[in-house]
Amino acid sequence: MPAATPLISLIEEATGATDTVALLRLSKAGVDVIETAITPRSRTAGRTLAEVPLPDGTVIATIIRDGQPTVPTPAFTLRAGDELLLVSHTATEQEIHAAFQ
Q: How far apart are CA 21 and CA 94, in angstroms?
């Protein structure tokens, strides 16, 4: 498995540059799957999902907290370390980043 280590390092380096990353583009459907992480400096840390205005055409597919996927509800309170997977047919990575960071 040593051959995977450099690849993992490259992926971590590429995704570590920003808190928001486009993971997948489903071009036929015009849909992007975007990941964003809540950091201690994120303005949404400590806020509920109901308090965060999402870009049009965007839904939160899941929130990963402590390695476990969670079904998002409006009452869910975001905290540093949470990773969100969003699906959007209109928003860009920059718009997602602006909404959560």
A: 9
Report d(CA 36, CA 97) in Å as an integer. 7
Contact 77, 70 (CB under 8 A): no
Q: Give the Å distances, CA to CA, from 65 to 4, 31, 79, 91, 96.
A: 25, 24, 9, 24, 19
pTM for the model: 0.71
Q: Residues 24, 29, 35, CA angle at the centre, nearest 5°?
A: 25
Position 98 scores a pLDDT of 92
DSSP SS3 for 58:
strand
